[in-house]
Amino acid sequence: MVYVGIPKGQANQEEEVLKTIQDGDSDELTIKRFTESREKPGALWHIYAAKDTEKIREFLKKVAEEQGQENPVDHDPIHDQSWYLDRSLRKRLHQEYGVQGWAIVQFLGDVVFIPAGAPHQVHNLYSCIKVAEDFVSPEHVKHCFWLTQEFRYLSHTHTNHEDKLQVKNVIYHAVKDAVGILRANESSLSRP
Question: How is the co-factor bound, per the entry (predicted)?
Fold first, then answer.
C-alpha cells in the first residue's frame, strides 16, 4: 500500500472505518492498531484457503439462485468478482460450508501476500493506491497451472480469460535456465 488518502474535515469517516473493520471480523490487535496509532488503514481484505475454492463457488451459485440470478456456464462467481461477502454472507458460508477466511487490514506501507488460487476480496477503506504483482513460486506452479486451465473455460470476453501469469512461459524458461546451468557445469559434474 503506497498511498492512503484520508479526506480532511469528515469527522464521522473514522467512525465508519472503525465499524467496517469491526464488522469485517478483524482481530483485536488490528482494531487497537487503528484506534491507538497514527497509521493509515487503506483496505480490508478477506482471504480464504485455496482448498475451499469449490465450496465458495458452490455457495455463491446457491446465493445467486436464491436471488433469481442466472449462473451461465462460461462465467464463474469467483472470477467474475461480482460478489462481496459481507458479514452475513461470511457467517452463512461458515455455518453452511465450514469455510472461514482471514481478515487483514492493510495499512499504509503494508504488503499482503495472497497464496496461489486463494479466493479473496478487498474493501477500500479510503482512497488508496496499491501496487500488485503476480508471481509464480516453484511450490505453487501446479496450482497456478490449474488456475490457468480454469480461466480457459470463461467466456472469451471475460477479463480473466487470458493467461495473466504466463505459467507455461515461466516453466519453459525455468527449465531452459536449469539445462543451461547444467550444461555449463557438465564437466565439473562428471568428475569424481
Answer: Binds 1 Fe(2+) ion per subunit.
Name the 3-class secondary structure at 178.
helix
pLDDT tens digit sequence for 151-180 = 666 555 555 545 566 777 777 777 888 888
Name every residue whose Cβ is closer than 8 Å to that of residue 140 and which is 6 or more positions away in sequence: 115, 116, 117
User: Is the C-alpha dihedral spanning 166, 108, 91, 94 positive or negative?
Assistant: positive
Set of cell numbers at residue 167: 505459467
> In the prediction, which pLDDT does 161 show?
47
The separation between CA 68 and the C-alpha centre of its own chain, rounded to angstroms, equals: 27
In CATH terms, 1-133 corresponds, of 2.120.10.30, 3.30.2010.10, 2.60.200.30, 2.60.120.650, to 2.60.120.650
Cα dist. 64→24, 58, 76, 123 in Å? 22, 10, 11, 21
Distance CA 91, CA 162 (A): 33
The one-letter code for the residue type at 140 is H
- Residues 99 and 52 sit within 8 Å (Cβ to Cβ): yes
